[in-house]
């Protein structure tokens, strides 16, 4: 997918628009499976929250992946995409017992992360297989909002509560078939990941009927040329050897599971915007585009960096620009960034727009959400239409003041 392809997509579908390259998604999936090829049983559960378009879920189903879901709605999206219930794991946080019970009737793998719900669910449904999410108290992740395994996190059952957990399992007679952890996103040091894995292995020894161990994900992807990323190949070599050793000691082969999202789709995505205005102030040149944090919130929420390219003038002389949106509050995508000279009407492409971009988009300022396009086998395919005014008002019930009075 080259610049001309992207310009053609912007011309055909308008801007702003999200574009996903299926070839990159496929290569990332195969890179991960190849890294763990020495494991007898491997399951990659794609994290739906990263990018939940049904066409993308169908692509992962075709590749043989399962799904990692965090809500009943994501579960139903997976089922609508044709994914087998047995290949879907449901890992909610802070949801009601009623939602967990409803999901369990759909035949997917339940993953519970707090003692209260574990005891209630186990008492009512002792025969339903349940995975337990452990909090290993390991700080990992590139931002406090995405570090979820530390001691103050709301996620998981503390390793210090294992005795209490075991009492619940014994008293309810429930079936624990999996152990799970997720330390956070943007993990740089695989030694930290391996350290947390040892805690998971120790915990797993307490359960005699496990079918799988889920190590979560959080693998870092590069956000610019030369950027550091998680060394998947080294992690695969080291963790596979340790996992196989654990299985030998455990007495049978278990399934090693991961739940990557960003690793699989981030680099596959481009976000295309049009430059509405070039505005020179006393100290800054602003490039104002036809989008804002209503479409790509990550730079504002997480401080994340997305490389920005002027694909209308890729060979132009580089100048410094602050790229900003059209939302009526500060929504800065990039400060004083070197970009090929920009003119009004140019198309800019944001890299790493495959994960947590559309899925975190909103209608703030009553703006429409953009379309999604899949680039597959050298052709552009619309996989979500641009919203219109009817989409914006759907579900609203106008109140009739004339009939009721003020």
The largest sheet is: 9 strands, mixed
Low-confidence runs = 140-150
Q: Count of helical segments?
A: 13
Helix content: 25-40%
Instruction: Using the coordinates shown, work out and report the CATH topology of the largest domain.
Output: TIM Barrel
The tally of strands reads 18
The chain-level structural class is: alpha/beta
The whole-angstrom Rg is 23 Å
Task: State the CATH architecture of the largest domain.
Answer: Alpha-Beta Barrel
Describe what you observe in this structure:
This protein has 406 residues and is α/β, with parallel strands linked by helices. The chain has two domains: 22-262, Alanine racemase (TIM Barrel); 266-386, Lyase, Ornithine Decarboxylase, Chain A, domain 1, CATH 2.40.37.10. The protein has helices at 3-13, 22-35, 54-63, 72-80, 97-104, 115-124, 162-172, 190-204, 232-250, 262-265, 298-301, 389-393, 401-404, and strands spanning 17-21, 42-47, 66-69, 88-90, 109-112, 130-135, 157-158, 176-180, 212-214, 255-258, 269-280, 285-289, 308-310, 318-324, 332-340, 347-350, 372-376, 379-384. The strands form two sheets. Strands 1, 11, 12, 13, 14, 15, 16, 17 and 18 form a nine-stranded mixed β-sheet that branches. Strands 2-3-4-5-6-8-9-10 form an eight-stranded parallel beta barrel, surrounded by five helices. Helix 6 (115-124) links the parallel strand 5 (109-112) and strand 6. It starts with a helix and ends with a helix.
